Structure formats: C-alpha cells, structure tokens
Fold these 4 entries.
Entry 1:
Amino acid sequence: MDAMGVVRDQYGQFRGQTMAQTFGQIKVYTNVVVAPTLPNRDWPERGGPGTRMPVGALTLAGIERAARDRLPPEIWDFIEGGSGAERTLAANRKMFERYALRPRTMVDVSACATGMNLLGGQLELPLGIAPMAYHRLVDPEGETATARAAGKAGALLVAGMFASRTLEEIAAAATGPLWLQLYWLRQRAALAALVERAEAAGFHALMLTVDAPRIGRRLRDLRNGFAIPPAIRAVNLDPALMAASHRATDGGSGIADHAREQFDPTLSWSDLAWLRERTRLPLVLKGILTAEDARLAVEHGVDAVLVSNHGGRQLDGALPALAALPDVVEAVPAELPVLFDGGVRTGADIAVALALGARAALVGRPALWGLATEGEAGVHRVLDLLREELEHTMALLGRPRLADLDRGVLAPWPTA
Ligand SMILES: Cc1cc2nc3c(=O)[nH]c(=O)nc-3n(C[C@H](O)[C@H](O)[C@H](O)COP(=O)(O)O)c2cc1C
C-alpha cells in the first residue's frame, strides 16, 4: 500500500484502495477493492483482471480470457463481434468439431517438420496473422510489436490497410514475410499510392479483400455507437478519407459509416487488371467461398486465394469457412496456394485445414488477444502455442511432414 492507500499486487497492477477516515480519536480504514482477482484456471498462480503477464497460459482460450478482462467492453465487442445474429461466426468454430483425427502408429516422428515456402517467402510453420485494422486499439505499439512477434515465430504477417502504424515502420520491424491487405476504395489514387509505398517499403505481396463491397451489419458496434478513438488512426491514409470512422453517431457505427462513404461497391473482376498494372507484387484474393469464384480468380491470374468469411463479420449466414474450403481447393490447380482463415484456435485446427487442402492457415482475433495481454511477447506466445500444438498433433497423428496431412487424416466425428 502506498501513501495514497493504493494497493498493488506483486506485478504492480492496481488492486484497490484503502481509505482512512478519522472520527474524533478513531481512525477507520475502508478497503475498496475495485479489481478482484478472479480464478483463472489457465494461470491460477498469477492473473486476473488487469494482469499483463498471463505466464503459463496453456491455450489460446486462456489468453482470450485475459484479453477480455483487460479491454474496454466496446473495444472487446469490436474485436470479438460478428455480423447479424453471429451465426457464421459461431459456425466457423463449430465446423472443426465435425472432424475426428485418424492417428497412425509406429511411424518415426522424432522430427516433425513444419517449415514451408509461401509465394517465395520462407515460413517456419504454415501460419499467418490475418489482416486486422488498428492494432493500437489494444496496445500502444500496435503493428510493429505484431510484426516483430511474427518474425520471431517465423509466421506470415498480413498488415491491414487500416494499420495504425506506417507501412515503413511495420516493414522495418518485420523480419519475415510481410503482405499488405487492401480494400477497394472509391479514391483510386489513394489505393495506387499505398501500393507504390508498400512495394518501396519491401512488402512481399498484396491481398485484396473482395468480400466487403459494404460492411456487415455488426450489431454490437451499432449498439455501442462504436467509433475509432481519435488518438488511434489509420496513419497510412489521408485523415480526411478516414474522418467518418472516428465519428460516433447514435445507433450508428463509425466503421459502418466510413465503409459506406469510402468502399467502392462497383469492384468487379475486370478491375484486377488496374491493380496488376501498378505492381509487380503477387496478388492474393481474400474472401473466396465458392468454387465459381475460385475458378474466376484462377482465370484472372491471381497468385493465391484466401478462403475466408471475414471471421463471420460480413455476410451472416455465409458458409462456415471450413465448409467452403474443400470446394475451393478442388476448383483450383494444385499448385495455386489456397489459404484459410476463420475460427482457427489450436494447432489441431491448423492440421485439419491443411488436411482439407489449405497450404497455410491464418488467425485473426487470437493475435489481438496476445497483443492486448502482453504486447509483442503475447503475440509470440499465441503463435508459439499454435506451433507447439501443431507439431504435437503431427507427432501423435504419425504424420511428421506437412505433406502427410491429407484427407486420410480425417474422419467425420461419429454422432451418437
Ligand atoms: C478486429 C478485426 C479487424 C479486422 N480487420 C480487417 C481488415 O481491416 N481487413 C480484412 O480484410 N479483414 C479484417 N478482419 C478479418 C480478418 O482478416 C480475418 O478474416 C478473421 O479475423 C479470421 O477469423 P478469426 O478471427 O476467427 O481467426 C478483421 C477481423 C477482426 C477481428
């Protein structure tokens, strides 16, 4: 307890305040505990609200709980929320439960190899961080901390167009493969300028998000009247172009208003030529869920596709991402990388996505949970847990190489 009566735990976290009042000769102490330590089975010895050191977290679910305890409710809702009734959001996770794993025995698994090459970049595991706007919402450093963690873990980072650190800062912090995500803006000049800057800064590929001609109805943000706080900005774009995202309106969301104002809903296949003319970088399309679109993507010469429903944040009722994956894989030539995101929370989930034909899996929310709890170290912890779990799954499956993860790994989960 310090002179002001403030009580902190051994990690310096605020735990409450003791107030002293004097009535004549009697001094009365009142304990006002505002941040009780809640039991958290993942790290019972340290933890609880406000803790920035979830030492010993054994699962991403544990890190998720720590992040939720830490973040203001409207930021938490912005991150966790989906669109509409959040059916697609929930189904992304549920789909993984449909699969059982078929372990083979008596296979030498003394060395499990998870390294791979993706569009010319070397990864230590088939994993990336999906593009997400405004990492500084959860950590003062933001994307540069995420980039360092991804580099250390040997994972891909896809920086968002609405990153809260400059492309140049992110590129300077990155030591591994780094891609930039783009939305199709009405202001093509802004898009062209970003592409040029990304190339100059050393980004390795562009990922165009094609599932957002308009933004999904994210009811949590609408209810909260959510807007991006003024101190946190999409610094790679002109402030005038981003102004709407900072305006809170009653019953509205700054994010939705901004998208309505700035996203170009006329985007169609023929527009890809415009982008191609402006860059030598490989082009990846994000948000493909059908064989029809996968075939069109191939016809238009894209370098990879990402099967994704935007983490359940766009069309509610859209196919769960894992359900869409086999159709897309079947529709494209074997050499075209098919990436996957949506609901990946364990190393076993990565193994399932790979067994269904994905070349690599991306995680969205978990990276922000890590960043919110421990900054760079937290993101690294998330990626490292996934690597450890993937390697463990491969060993116990009797599949020591990524190429061994094929359909033979999977069986339908038996229903009672
Ligand atoms: C907070 C947040 C912000 C996001 N921002 C973007 C974005 O700017 N561009 C984009 O293409 N996808 C964005 N996404 C979607 C992710 O790239 C990804 O598709 C999704 O989060 C994957 O699902 P998961 O969170 O279940 O892993 C965002 C997702 C979240 C949770």
Entry 2:
Amino acid sequence: MKTVKLGKTGLIVSKNGFGALPIQRISKKNAVYLLQKAFYNGINYFDTARAYSDSEEKIGAAFSYIRDKIIISTKTAAQNADEFWKDLEQSLKNLQTNYIDIYQFHNPSFCPKPGDKSGLYDAMLEAKKQGKIRFIGITNHRMTVAKEAISSKLYDTLQFPFSYLGGESDIEIVNLCKENNMGFIAMKALSGGLITDSAAAYAYLSQFNHVAPIWGIQRENELDEFLSYNDNPPIFTDNMKKQIEHDRKELSGDFCRGCGYCMPCPAGIQINDCARMSLLLRRAPKDDYLTKEWQEEMKKIEGCLHCNNCMSKCPYKLNTPELLKKNYEDYKTFL
Ligand code: SF4
Ligand code: SF4
C-alpha cells in the first residue's frame, strides 16, 4: 500500500486519507462502521474539524481504543486565543484523546504568526509545549495565505485544494511545500464533486509522491472504491490524460472552481457550491443537490446584495453575482 511522509512531521500516512466532513450526515453507528472499516483496511489518517458538527465525536467513538495506531488532524476556526483554547479542549474531549497529531488553523484570512494581535500562533506553541498537539498546520483556500504560510516556515503542514483541474499556480504551491519539507494535504481532490472519475483523480495525484489526498467519504461504496486503490493503485494512462484534457477544456471559461476565495458572503450565500450548481447537477448524482437543505441554500441567492465583494476577490475574474443568478435559474428548472 502506498504511503506518504508528511514533510518535517515525519508522520507516515496512507496515500488515501479519510476526509471526515461528510460523516456528519450519517448516523453515529454507520459512521463508526465506516471509520473502522477504513482503518482495518489500511487507512491510518483521518482529518476532521471543530466546525464539522459531530464528526470529531464519531472519530472518538470509533478509535478511542486504538488511538496510538491512527493519525488525527483537526481544525480550529478560532479568531483569538480564548476561542482557540475552547476549541482545543472541546476537540480533545470529542475525540476522546489527550493529544491531536496535527492541529490546523481552519482557512484563516491571514497567516497567524508569533506575537501578532490575534494571539493564535502563540496559543498553538503553548498547546504544543503542553503536549496537547504534536504538529502545527494551516488549511487555506487563498493562494496568498498559503504562500505566506510556506515562506514563514512556521507550519509543519499545509492543507490546500488540489486536483487535476488545478492550474500552474496550484502546482507551484505543491512544489514549494516539497522544497520546504512541509507536508501537503490535498483537499477537494475530486474538486468538490466535479470530478467523477476517482481513479483518474487518484492516478494524477500519485505523480506527486509528497501529496497526501484526503477523500470525503460518506458511503460504503465510496470507501470501497478508495480501498481498492490501496491494493491496485490506478496507473496514469494515456486515456486518463485525454480525459483530464477534456475536463479541463469543458470546465474552462466561466466556471467556478469552488475555491472559496470570494467568501464569506454578507448574504450568507455558499458561493463556492451555488455558483457551480449547474455543473454539479450534471456531473455528480443530481439528487444529492436537490434536497431541502440545498434548495434553501440556493434560495439565498435571491438575497444577494450586489455588493460585488465576491467578484473583486475571485482570482478567475468571474462575474460571481451573475453566475449565481444563472445557476439559480437553471437549478429551478430541475425542481
Ligand atoms: S455580490 Fe452577492 S454573492 Fe457576492 S458577496 Fe455580495 S451579497 Fe454575496
Ligand atoms: S466565484 Fe471565484 S472565488 Fe468564488 S468559489 Fe468560484 S472560483 Fe472561487
């Protein structure tokens, strides 16, 4: 089975990491079953976040008896030191452990550093000193913050979106992490549902031996698919290359990459999914996006304030409010 060394942490994780965001949506019993099945079939790395409701609790329930056999990363979206400590204590309790392997700042809008007024990085250092965390990580969707985190040399790992739809600038981040011996954890390796061929996604990422992808897993058949790659890793074939070129062409132009650089939105619109709903409906199982929850999310587009904050932050220069409107119109035809 393929493994990845996470940079200077020295941690060896399975090439398939388990992204535990989707297990929020299933029962505790089913989640524990999936997590344990993953572990007993070779997955040793599980990534979650304080923000993923009961995901941490489910991991705690599944693994408290074999804590030292697995590697856990979780995240805090704290804005100051007080919130940091509250989150950390809660995560330790939920995960039924007294240490977290990689504790990550969850998509902060800036790169926390020692002595800054947020006090966040100093709190991380103190938590490390106390043995409550082993390594310091950061997750981000913003190129600028990611680059700053790498050059600061303050972080052991970076979690960043990376898939075969990524451009040269994403590959630059991946390579910079390698040069700086920083672990690279790839989120959204299926581009949030736009990539439907997981074998091609896996084979593409296999070319980068220091990259550890985490796959969001909710169903047993999804888990089985990734487990099958442990024994028979998909090879990057010419056909896959053609398919990737085709996807890159199809998903070019006015297409939202789901990066989230434009967020948060003052009207609470989940722009990174809603602005590409037409693609999600056509490229992924559409029923997943027609639920009551999603209908409510899409309806928020009606409340767009046309402040254009999103447009000014989009690195792809998309007319985001217009794109949201188009996607909403199209969405209604599916209902
Ligand atoms: S223009 Fe609309 S979608 Fe964009 S940030 Fe403002 S309210 Fe949100
Ligand atoms: S609108 Fe632009 S910035 Fe926002 S999620 Fe889509 S691609 Fe990213």
Entry 3:
Amino acid sequence: MKTWVKDNQGNCHELRHEDELLRCEQCEEIFRTSELHNGHSCPQCLNDHRFFPVEERDERIETIEVPEKGDWIYLPTSLYLSHGADDFCGGRALVIEVRRGVSAGRYTPFVICAERRGSQYNWLVLMEEQDELRERYGESEAHADPDLRPEFNRWD
Ligand SMILES: [Zn+2]
C-alpha cells in the first residue's frame, strides 16, 4: 500500500518521497513538485504566482492507502444479465497496475488486477467494500465465471 492524499476538492495525489506537495495560492489545487516546472504557471488556474508547501497535518488533507502493483485486494462479483459470458466471481485479486484517472471530474486512483485485466476499478469505491468482501470471500481467489447460456447472452 502507498499513501495518497485527497485534497479539499476531492482530487487524489500519489505521495512520492522525492516529491513535495505544493498548493496553488489561487485555486488551492495541490500538485507534486514533479508536476510543476520552475517558473511556469499553475496547470489548473494558470496563475503564475506562488505555491505553498502542504503540511502533512494540513486539516484539508485526507490520506488514503492505495494498493501498489503486487498487493492483494478484493474484487466484487459482477453478473451481467445480457452478457453472462463476462460474469466474474469476486475474491482475492493481484494488483498489476495502479493509475490515476478522472472520475466525476476529480483525480482518482484506479486499479487493474491480473484476474480481470480488462477492467479498471475506482479504488475510492472499492476501498469502502474491502472489509465486507474480505469477510465474504476469505482466501478464495477472484476468477472469470462465464455463463454462456444464450438467454444471458443477448446482443440485441
Ligand atoms: Zn492554481
């Protein structure tokens, strides 16, 4: 697991040790130093004024634990009425990639697991379900569980 921070606007940022977090004076968006180039303007509000270091204890900041490649997490079961061939049985799953995408207009961590490479999961949603899923699936591993019956695989 790796620590990310969620700012007061709901944007998530991965915290890298070599990076400092800086807050734009004007729009209050938070950036890593590696995202900013010296002397350039804020990527969000285009202000070219000042950035302030974000204190770890800044109360506007919420920290979240986000999986890393190689971590095990739990995925939920997905059943599809009209394309049962894609049915998936939840359980433990190995994280193979974590990327930052956008959900509802905010930077959000997404995870991709070896057991279901074609899907990326919004970690902010998934993390709320982890305890429940752990209880339900225990040690069993997530796997494809295709239902090929024609009545569950209509393409109309
Ligand atoms: Zn700004």
Entry 4:
Amino acid sequence: MDFEKIAPIIRQSEIFSGLNDKEIISLCSLAEEKEYEATEIIIKQGDEASSFYMIVEGTVDVYKEQKGNFYYIHSLEPKELFGEMALVDDSPRSATVKAKTKVIVISFSRVAFHQYLAISSDAGIKILKIINKRLYNAEKQATREIIRLQDTTIFAMAKLAEGRDPNMGCHLERMREFALLIARAFKERSQRYLYMDNEFLDLLYKCAPLHDIGKIGIPDHILLKPDYLDNEEKQIMRTHTTLGAETLQKASQKPIDNYFLDMAICIALSHHERWDGSGYPQGLKGEDIPLSARIINIADVYDSLTSDRIYRKAFSHEEACKIIKENEESKFDPSILDVFDTIEDDLISIKNRFPD
Ligand SMILES: [Fe+2]
Ligand SMILES: [Fe+2]
C-alpha cells in the first residue's frame, strides 16, 4: 500500500479527521485499494458485511431493494464513506452500492479494523464516536422522511375522498392553513388550554384535511346533487361525521397511543357540532365539543361562505365575517371567534393563495 498516496486521502474523511499522524499511518497499513468499472456492484444488499469503503475517485449510487424493486437513495462522491456499519455489527448489508462511473476505493476489512482497535484504542474510540453520530443523523433523516411520506399519504387519501366532489377545489389545502392560522392566533390570546402546544398545532394541520373523510360513504346522488338536499338526504349527508370517525377508529385499533388518529377522529365526528348544542351528530354543547373540532368548524364555515356553491355565489370576506359574527355567534365558540379580527389579512391571503 502506498502510504504517501493513501494517508492524505484518509485524512480528508470526516471519520478519520481526529486521528494523529501515527494513528493514520497504522490505519493505512490496513487499507486496500480497489477498482470497479461503471455499473459494477460494490456491495449487495443482504450480503454479509465484512468491509467498509472510502471513495478515492468516481461516483457510486446507493439503492434499496424492496420486494424486487430497486429504489435509488443517493449518490456518493470522493472522500465519502459507505458500508461503515460493517465496523460496528455484522448484520447483512442494508443497501446495494453500484459504481456509477469507474471508481477507485480504499477498503478496510472489519477483521483488520478490530485488530487496529486493539492496538490503538484511543483512535478507535474517536472513529466510533463519529460513526455513532453519523448513524444517529442518518436515523433522524430517515424518521423525517417517513413522517413526510405519511403526511403525503394522508393528504392524498383525503384528496381522493374529496375529489368525488368537483366543486371542492382547494378546500382541503385552505382548511389546514385556516385551522393552523386560527389555532395559532387563539393560542397567543388565550392560556386557557395548556395542551395547545406546537405538537397540537402540527396535528391540527395534518388532521384538518380529514374532517370530511366520511363523505366517501355518501352516495353520489346526494353528495353531488346540484340543488338543496331534502330532509331525508340531509340526514344521510350528516352521517359523514359518524362514518368518518368509524373509518378512522378502525385504523386506530392498535395497542399504542396515536395522537394523530385520536384528533382526526374527534374532528371527523364533531366538526358539525355547534356551541349552543344545535349541531350534529351528538348535539354536544360548549366545551364538551373538542377544541380541535371547534376550530375546524369555524374554518369550514368561513371557507364554505367564501366559496361558490352550485346554489349561490361566494360571499366576500367582509360579508362572510358579518354572517359568522352576527348571525351565528351562538353557534361558534365565542373566544375563538374573538381572534378572527386579528387575522383578517391572513385569511384573505390564504384564500388567494389557494383559489378553486
Ligand atoms: Fe363535514
Ligand atoms: Fe369541509
């Protein structure tokens, strides 16, 4: 192994950056230079992990294989490492790494590295600390990615349910923005609900689009009727609250706490309840109506009033606020309604940002 050539390269890598000259030289004695042609597989998912690699020249692509499909994860460039899990455990490779171009790597076998740890324990601890940090960051990144995927799936599901009604346009996009806006303003004004923390706001934003998920069970001739509903049809339409809650309830039957589904169920069930007890499906009154559902209710009514309907034109922002405040005050939580004046500009800008 050419120490003069390898040592400066090794020194550039993050995980070896804390080593002194002597430690680097003894590490070089374990290194092996290898070359791969473009498209050649360097490590294969599921294989035994026995070495880790540092790229000297070229680019590699990392893929995950799941049920016969390959998913591209990312590319790695010179100085970057891959396969470093081989240093800390011997579980099979979690991904496939393929040469994108002609690639030169320096490889270190686990066996040799363990010998190195025995001789230079200080250097070994420095390296393991950095690997630990890298794995922690990678895990955080993966968790963020999973959450992002879940959020996208949930919203897509809600959109699909809402999509049967072509008149709804960007209602769901606006609903989550309105809900967050109202909740934030309310939180700033009132210390009444201590559980109203950032997690609550985040959940409310994600759950808001699911408020009408139960409409998926309402027949087309009622949901899409281009006219006022008769009494019997109204009763069927109202079941979208219980249908939605039941559907989400089925999904939540797990032995773990699921705050997301708990809030989504409250919203689906109670977003048509009224402060004075005249709403449905349970006729809940005042603070018996979950706070999340009270917020969604106001957001929903505001959006409905300011949107065109088959049977009427949209009201202006001013008209809608007047209707909500003067004619329906008994139907909304007055303390939430109080914040409406403070967020008027933002309500209008959300409406403009997501037109139908
Ligand atoms: Fe609804
Ligand atoms: Fe709605």
